[in-house]
Fold this protein.
Amino acid sequence: MMALSLGFDPIFPPWVLVGLAILFAAFSALLLLRRARGSLIRTLFFAALILALSNPHLVQEDRTALSDITVAMVDRSASNRIGDRESETDKAIDALRANIQATGGELRVIESDRKADRTELFGPLAAALADVPPDRLSAALLITDGRIDDISRGEALTAAERPIHSLLIGNRKAPDRRIEVIRAPEFGLVDRPVTIELRIEEDNIPESGPVALTIRRFDKAPQQRMVMPGVPFEITLTPERRGEMLVDVSVETAPDETVLVNNRALFSVNAVRDRLRVLLVSGEPHPGERVWRDTLKSDPAVDLIHFTILRLPTSQDPTPVSQLSLIPFPTERLFSEQLEDFDLVIFDRYSLRGVLDVRYFSNLLSYVEGGGAIFVANGPEYAEPLSIFRTPLEQVLPASPTGTISSTGFVPALTELGRRHPVTQGLEQPGAAPWGRWFRMVDNRVVDGQVLLSGPGEQPLLVLKRAGEGRIAELMSDHVWLWARGVEGGGPYQELLRRSVHWLMKEPDLEEKALSARSDGEDIIVERRSLSGEQATVTVTGPDGSERTLMLNPGANGIAEGRLLATEAGLYRISDGEDETVAGIGPVGGHELSRIMPTDQIVRDVAQKTGGGTFWLEDGLPDIRHPSKQATAAGNGWMGLPQRRASRIEDIAQTALLPAWAWAALLAGLLALTWRKESR
């Protein structure tokens, strides 16, 4: 494509020419006003002189036409993938690309994040438009169901002077019944009721009576109730254990309803204990007592009650009891009436000195076997005749004292089991300074339990055991405080005690054998932790009752993992024959898939402000026209992609308007004609 234009390359700076032009114009005007002879010819001479000094030339440009660019922002969110919407979207893109390319245009397609729970189109569209040269941008297209969450960012695009059209996907007249979330807490307390407030909404469905609602929980039989559409209602549930509680709520299908994904909603409630109550009983004042107290008090989840026995019932003291400032030890209330209120009882260097009656230890035995937890931190008294081992707790204590005490220095060492157990795994960091020594340990033999730390001669140092429904742990030395003081570099005392305590209180992350599952988009990831980490097979039961087998492959840290593609939304139950867990696929909390009916209300304002239009693809793809920049860009059944007619210069050739000798001859002729005219 050739283009011809007139250009100037002044001999003098422009300001000089402008000054001369003003001077000549003033002089010529004066001559014309006085009707001087030859004034017209003199004016022509001045004009020709200025033009010659401007050095005019013809500019010939060789240009290549550039295609107009149309940017299509495609909604790939979950709500625009249900039913046949994704295939409808793909067909629209193919038809648009073929039409635009047939007229020499270019279609650039960008897509939203498929895994996001919110539909954001205007942010990515603005970034894409910034990469398009303004003189080539024809228009922008939104291919969506109209459910957009970042509509506020669309205001910035209305000033771009380019039309933004919306091609809407879906059947706007289809019947739809959905569960709408009014209030759904993310956290709850164990054994405290949690309330979820919902409402059943309907579109394109004739008014009817109550509809059936089904509520499903893990390890619970489904519950049904009748609810009225449009009227808020509440579901009250009580978490019975710590961790994630998944609730699956579904409503019956309406007549002729085809899109059922929002008839079901999953709610995840993270159940926690209000406060973990710990009872710490120190048999006597000693340096390790403060270590226990400080460690437990630093844990915000722990509510600590600490008693230190300072005076025995048999102590001979002439001071009247009424004048003593000591607090009486409420043994009956703590170990009989309120024992079940505690999540953990810790005996720190306790011995039988007449403070606790034998019947209280019988209560403690029942407490452990019924699901409670006890930690016994032993000192020299554990090897003596008044040892706590000589009580009914002997039946559940994992380590039996031999009656001797080792007083040589030793460095606590992780056993082979301890390197894999979640309580002690990772305590020994590669490249870290070696741990400091301890200097006292009660010799023992393990009756039944898991040895995680060992002392001199590979004697058991830290032993864990499950007893009935509860748990018990023993630490066979009272020198953990040396690590707290940093003696010989110290050691990870806080992490060791904290993990041990939370394992006793059944912290899910510290279970040595656990089965867990979580959703990742449309996949379910299953993890099985064990002390061996061997390959395992689990059975996955879908929402429809169908069963599939999944192989878990061994990985690092004793965790075997597998991934399964979910076929539908709902609760999936996973079992390895011993343990069970549950995972949910679908709109947890109910956002992206909670409202799936297509709408033009959200995009209509942006279209109107930019001169674009909104079109329903179920009515057919609108005709595409290419109006001029100033013309209307949308009409009934058609949308406009304005022509930009941009081009790129490939070559430029310049030719002088007149050669120098011609300018000289012209000026000389005009000057001679002026002289002749004035000489008459």
User: Anything to note?
Assistant: The mean pLDDT is 84. The CA atoms of residues 29 and 43 lie 9 Å apart. The longest helix spans residues 14-33. DSSP finds eleven helices and 36 strands in the chain.
